[in-house]
Write a structure and sequence with these properties.
The protein has helices at 2-29, 34-44, 50-63, 71-76, 81-106, 117-127, 134-162, 167-197, 206-233, 238-265, 268-271, 277-281, 286-294, 297-306, 314-327, 329-348, 355-369, and strands at 110-111, 114-115. By secondary structure, the chain is an all-alpha fold. The protein contains 17 helices and 2 strands. Strand 1 (110-111) and strand 2 form a beta hairpin. The protein folds into 2 domains: 1-45 and 81-163, Farnesyl Diphosphate Synthase, CATH 1.10.600.10; 167-373, Farnesyl Diphosphate Synthase. The protein is 77% helix and 1% strand. Helix 1 (2-29) packs antiparallel against helix 2 (34-44), helix 3 (50-63) packs across helix 9 and helix 7 runs antiparallel to helix 8 (167-197). A two-stranded antiparallel ribbon has the order 1-2.
């Protein structure tokens, strides 16, 4: 745990320095642009830094395979450590960009207990009594914030890769980041597509299509890609990177399924989002696909009628929650999570990865799948 906290502190410090640099850059253009770095700081002040941690331990899993009497001291002095911290921080910037855009698409009001970025800008417009439509301004400004964060994630990654001692490793890491960026973008599209086009799909395809969204919108970029990015920066072999991917993908699926359960049943005081938020947004998740497959026709019609109504009352939310529970979908989802974690852990057995990294990855697997927010 102390090592984990130290890493989070290093990443947070790097993010602070980076935003300080960008604040100076923006304010030389116009003082009005401080809204972007202010919003970025607030958004990045929350979060558990899972992607940063998986990136570091992916690197450690390879770099830590050297024999040493004091491995941690050696890694602390490793010439590539600062490059890895840059890459880890870049993943957090990328994640923040995805959250800003995701909240716009989902029309979400809150994020981590604070107003979502577009609502923040919208409130500024209302408070200052500016001309024009406040919601349009809020959405436009948040889109630009998301784009800035996305570009900044590239800048910070490139800064780290430029200092990496091995050029082929830097190129492989850059390619991994680019693949991740493409996959999460198209995964996000598949998510919004399912919300509107699910009736066009055969019933038997709804569960695989929901699983496809889980894989590409979240699982790969949340855990698999950060692990692979770190490992590639350390010059990991095909065997080592493959072992980390075999660990990361099923764990990423379990991670997102936990998130989906929280989106339906989570406590707003803990999650920072309204109760049943995914139900109002009409998310066609694995849980919904499992519930529809298990319920009688009347209950399925109820789900289809209510799911996606942004004005659902607390009573209607409770009705949907009870219907989903009665279907057995929650228990089935928990079983899938359990099996996915077991599959992930099995991939670490006898792998050519450092012992300390394997131990930390086991601990992280428990942390990301048993969380309450």
């Amino acid at each position: 745990m102390p090592e984990r906290l130290r890493l989070v502190d290093l990443v947070n410090a790097r993010l602070e320095r980076f935003l300080d640099e960008r604040a100076t850059q923006l304010t030389t253009i116009a003082g009005d642009l401080s809204v972007f770095t202010d919003a970025s700081r607030d958004l990045l002040s929350g979060g558990k830094r899972f992607r940063a941690l998986f990136c570091y331990w992916g690197w450690h899993a390879v770099a830590g395979t050297v024999r040493s009497d004091d491995l941690m001291a050696e890694l602390d002095q490793h010439p590539d450590l600062s490059s890895v911290i840059d890459a880890a921080a870049a993943l957090e910037l990328f994640h923040a960009a995805a959250l800003v855009h995701d909240d716009i698409m989902d029309n979400s009001d809150t994020r981590r207990g604070m107003p979502a970025a577009h609502r923040r800008f919208e409130s500024d417009h209302v408070r200052r009594e500016w001309v024009g439509n406040s919601a349009t301004y809020g959405t436009s400004a948040a889109l630009l914030l998301g784009d800035l964060l996305l570009g900044w994630s590239d800048e910070l990654l490139d800064a780290g890769l430029a200092r990496l001692t091995d050029s082929p490793s830097a190129r492989a890491a850059r390619a991994e980041f680019q693949t991740m960026r493409t996959e999460v973008t198209v995964g996000q599209y598949l998510d919004i597509l399912e919300e509107v086009a699910w009736r066009d799909a055969p019933e038997d395809d709804l569960l695989p299509r929901a699983h496809r969204v889980v894989t590409f919108k979240s699982a790969k970029y949340s855990i698999e890609a950060p692990l692979a990015l770190g490992a590639l920066m350390a010059g990991g072999s095909l065997e080592q990177v493959s072992a980390l991917r075999a660990f990361g993908l099923p764990l990423g699926v379990a991670f997102q399924l936990r998130d989906d359960l929280l989106g339906v049943f989570g406590d707003p005081a803990v999650t920072g989002k309204p109760a049943g938020d995914d139900l109002r947004e009409g998310k066609r998740t694995v849980i919904i696909a499992l519930a529809r497959a298990a319920l009688p026709a009347g209950a399925v019609r109820l789900i289809d009628e209510l799911l996606g109504d942004p004005n659902l009352s607390e009573h209607q939310i409770a009705t949907l929650q009870a219907t989903i529970r009665e279907s057995g979908a929650v228990e089935t989802t928990e079983l899938i999570i359990e099996r996915s974690v077991a599959e992930a852990l099995a991939a670490l057995d006898n792998s050519a990865l450092s012992r300390s990294a394997r131990a930390e990855l086991v601990g992280l697997s428990d942390l990301v799948t048993r969380r309450a927010h």
